[in-house]
C-alpha cells in the first residue's frame, strides 16, 4: 500500500510538472505572438468611420437627447466646497465657474490672464448684488503651456493645507488650421495643454484632494476623441509616420486624456475617496468647424439650432462636479476587470468612450509615457496616497 501510494504521488507530481511545463510553453508562445504582432500605427478605417458617424449623430441629436436637462442646470447649495476651474475666463469654463460660485461654492479661477478673470469677477459681483452673500471667487495664475507654472500652482495651493473638493480640468486648445507648434517644454501644444499639463496638475494636487475627500477630478473631454489615436513613441507627432494637422493633434490629446484617466482611476484606492470622471460637453458653438471635414462644416452652417451654447455645454461638467451619485458610479466601475474611467455624455448620462480608449496595453503605455514627460516617478500616485513627498522635474524648487 505504501509503495502504491508513493507511486501515485510520484505520478501526480510528474503530471503537475508536465502541466506546468506545458503552461510555460503556451505562455512563451503567446508572448512571442504578441511580440511579433504588428504595432498598431493608426485607427482602422472601420474604427475611423464609426467615430465620425458617432460625432455626426451627436451633432444632429444632442439637443433632443439632452432635452430633459434644465438650462441653466439647477444646483443644490454647495457651501463650504472648493472648486478649481482651469480656463475659466471664456466659454464653457466661464459658465462652470459662475454657476458653481452662484450656488455657494468657493471657486478658484486658474487662468493665464488674471486681469480678465478679475474683470469678470467684478461684473459677476455686480450682477449678483442683492441676491445673497457676495460670490466667493478668487484668481490664481496658471499657464498650461508651462509645466513649471503648473507645478508652482500646485505647490502654492497645497501649501494652504486646505481641502480641494473638485478639480475641473476645463482649459484646452484647438489651434484650427495652424502649423504645428511646441511649448517651451518641447511638447506639441495640443498634447501639453489638453493632456500633459492637466495630468501633472491632477497628480500634484492629490494631497489637497485627499484632504477634501470625497473629492473629484473632472476632465472636460470631447466627442472628438472617438477619432483620436495615440502613438506613445510619437506623442509629439514628429516622426513623419503620420501627417500632422491640428485635428490630429487635438483628437490624439483628448484620447490620451481618457486613457490616462482610466489608469489613474484604477490606481487610486477606494479609501482615497477620489473619483475620476471625463465628460463631453457636446458640440458647442465655437469656430472649430473650419478644420473639420466638409460634411461637418456644412452641418454647422445649416443647423445652428442643434449646436449648444456655452451655458448648455457646461452642464455635464457641473453635474459631474456636484451630483451625489457620481462617486457611486465611479466606485461601481472599479469592480470591473478593466474599469475605463467614468465618462459622461453631454446629456449627463454615463456612456462608453471610444473603442480605442479600451485598449489596455496602449492605456498603460500612455500612463507611463505621460509620467516620464511630466517628470514624475511611476509610483507617484501611491506615494502621494501614503503621504510621502514626491519630487517633480518641474516647479519653483527645480528652477
Automatic annotation (TrEMBL):
Region annotation Disordered: where it falls in the sequence: 1-37
SUPFAM superfamilies for the chain: NAD(P)-binding Rossmann-fold domains (SSF51735)
KW Isomerase (keyword) present: no
Highest taxon listed in the record's lineage: Eukaryota
Biased composition range(s): Basic and acidic residues: 13-31
Coiled coil location: none
InterPro entries given in the database record: NAD(P)-bd_dom_sf, SDR_fam
GO molecular function: oxidoreductase activity
Pfam family, one: adh_short
Record keywords: Oxidoreductase
PANTHER family in alphabetical order: DEHYDROGENASE_REDUCTASE SDR FAMILY MEMBER FEY, RETINOL DEHYDROGENASE
Protein family: Belongs to the short-chain dehydrogenases/reductases (SDR) family.
Protein known as: Retinol dehydrogenase 11
Amino acid at each position: 500500500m505504501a509503495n502504491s501510494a508513493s507511486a501515485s504521488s510520484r505520478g501526480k507530481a510528474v503530471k503537475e510538472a508536465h502541466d506546468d511545463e506545458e503552461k510555460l510553453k503556451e505562455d512563451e508562445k503567446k508572448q512571442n505572438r504578441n511580440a511579433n504582432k504588428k504595432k498598431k500605427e493608426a485607427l482602422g478605417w472601420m474604427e475611423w468611420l464609426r467615430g465620425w458617424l458617432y460625432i455626426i449623430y451627436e451633432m444632429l441629436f444632442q439637443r433632443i437627447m439632452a432635452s430633459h436637462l434644465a438650462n441653466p442646470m439647477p444646483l443644490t447649495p454647495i457651501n463650504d466646497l472648493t472648486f478649481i476651474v482651469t480656463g475659466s475666463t471664456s466659454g464653457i469654463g466661464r459658465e462652470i465657474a459662475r454657476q458653481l460660485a452662484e450656488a455657494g461654492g468657493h471657486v478658484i479661477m486658474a487662468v493665464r490672464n488674471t486681469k480678465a478673470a478679475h474683470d469678470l469677477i467684478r461684473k459677476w459681483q455686480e450682477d449678483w448684488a442683492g441676491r445673497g452673500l457676495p460670490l466667493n471667487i478668487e484668481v490664481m495664475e496658471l499657464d498650461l503651456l508651462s509645466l513649471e507654472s503648473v507645478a508652482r500652482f500646485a505647490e502654492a495651493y497645497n501649501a494652504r493645507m486646505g481641502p480641494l473638493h473638485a478639480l475641473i480640468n476645463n482649459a484646452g486648445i484647438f489651434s484650427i488650421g495652424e502649423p504645428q507648434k511646441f511649448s517651451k517644454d518641447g511638447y506639441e501644444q495640443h498634447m501639453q495643454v489638453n493632456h500633459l499639463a492637466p495630468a501633472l496638475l491632477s497628480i500634484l494636487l492629490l494631497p489637497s484632494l485627499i484632504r477634501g475627500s470625497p473629492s473629484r477630478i473632472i476632465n472636460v473631454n470631447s466627442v472628438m476623441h472617438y477619432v483620436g489615436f495615440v502613438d506613445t513613441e510619437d506623442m509629439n507627432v514628429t516622426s513623419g509616420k503620420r501627417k500632422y494637422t491640428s485635428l490630429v493633434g487635438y483628437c490624439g490629446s483628448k484620447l490620451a486624456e481618457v486613457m490616462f484617466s482610466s489608469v489613474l482611476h484604477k490606481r487610486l484606492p477606494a479609501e482615497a475617496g477620489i473619483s475620476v470622471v471625463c465628460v463631453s460637453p457636446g458640440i458647442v458653438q465655437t469656430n472649430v468647424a473650419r478644420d473639420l471635414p466638409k460634411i461637418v462644416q456644412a452641418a454647422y452652417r445649416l443647423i445652428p439650432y442643434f449646436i449648444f451654447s456655452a451655458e448648455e455645454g457646461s452642464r455635464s461638467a457641473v453635474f459631474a462636479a456636484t451630483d451625489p451619485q457620481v462617486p457611486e458610479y465611479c466606485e461601481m466601475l472599479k469592480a470591473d476587470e478593466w474599469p475605463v474611467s467614468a465618462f459622461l455624455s453631454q446629456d449627463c448620462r454615463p456612456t462608453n468612450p471610444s473603442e480605442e480608449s479600451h485598449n489596455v496595453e496602449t492605456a498603460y503605455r500612455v500612463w507611463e509615457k505621460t509620467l516620464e514627460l511630466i517628470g514624475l516617478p511611476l509610483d507617484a500616485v501611491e506615494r502621494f496616497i501614503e503621504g510621502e513627498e514626491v519630487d517633480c522635474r518641474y516647479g519653483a524648487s527645480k528652477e
